[in-house]
Amino acid sequence: MLTLDKIYQASFVLKNVLHTTEPIYAPLLCPGCELYLKPENLQVTGSFKVRGAYFKMSQLSPEEKAAGVIACSAGNHAQGVALAARENGIKAQICIPEGAPISKVEATKSYGAEVVLVKGVYDDAYAKAIELQKEQGSTFIHPYDDEDVIAGQGTIGLELMNQLSDIDAVIVPIGGGGLISGVAYAVKSLNPKVKVYGVQAAGAPSMIDSIKEGRQLTLPGVSTFADGIAVKHPGDLTYEIVSKYVDELVTVTDDEIATAILALIERHKMIAEGAGAVAVAAAMFGKVDIKGKKAVCVVSGGNIDVTILSRVISRGLMKEGRSTDITVALVDKPGQLVAVSELIARTGANVVSVRHDRSDEDMDINSCFLRLGMETRDRDHVEEIKRVLRDAGYQIVEGVAGVTGGTVR
Questions:
Q1: Which of 6, 38, 49, 287 is catalytic?
Q2: 49: annotated active-site residue
Q3: Is 300 considered catalytic here?
Q4: Backbone angles phi, psi at 265, to 5 degrees
């Protein structure tokens, strides 16, 4: 059974190995409350995962260490296991789906682990890891459903209670549930009055659906760019702990997560991955009751692929109304682009792209669609631009992709 003593033991083991991440005051992210960030994205390997992996390996017998360890992951767990194994002098194998980003594969190799690329997806890599574990007699390091791993993650809760003893709430991401299980157990054991909120991506609500149903469920599929918490089935241990110690579970959309990532970059110069930003998204979009309270968001990781980050920033800008596309239906004659551009310039918007389309089958022969990409201040600014254009007699095309099948208004 998980105990507070075991979490204290993990804290002692880890104290000279990992960073004690200091909370960061974040007053601009959620006005109306006193919000702090627990920046585990600044941890060794860029995520909290190394805590649980290292403590788990420290508890292995000499014979188990000699036999080596094996894990399955395409992200943070792989790097955590690889580093922990190196520091404990243990041979590590990591099974990774062959479609995983090269940056994550190379990062795992850089910590000294043997990487086994497996054709297919995570489930195929998991099956291969179990097969190798049985053949070799190595120890499988589970990413979340393990007592020692959960205890290692629980050290975050101990740190929080030492750093901010008067907090009212802790907001924690949930994938398989290892992180929130450890944090919730530690926090509630030390102060039962502190609220613990769990956050999942709306496209991967396995823990939430299971708690609602009163039994563990397996989702048919998951859909979110927050790959670190895209888990179809919660763990056995974690399900029980979350059921007992977590006060409320909520979801956030991918657009809300993207907005939170952008806010962390702009306001705190901090990079978070999708899974790492869900707690901040829940606070920013009012998914949890923290108004007038002192709360902490656990930013669980920062290992985001740069190509995904670019798309996330674009999505976040659109969500906030700071980047927009507007399509205008025009009579195709000289001077139209100049006239439209002058009206937009007067509002203070910056046109960054122009597309002139005469080929849409829904338009008149002598008409065209002018699609403009713009940098804007906010949603109110976007509406102001549309109003100025309509007042000047121009028609705005509303619809998917702004053109085909759109509605002229």
A1: 49
A2: yes
A3: yes
A4: -65, -50
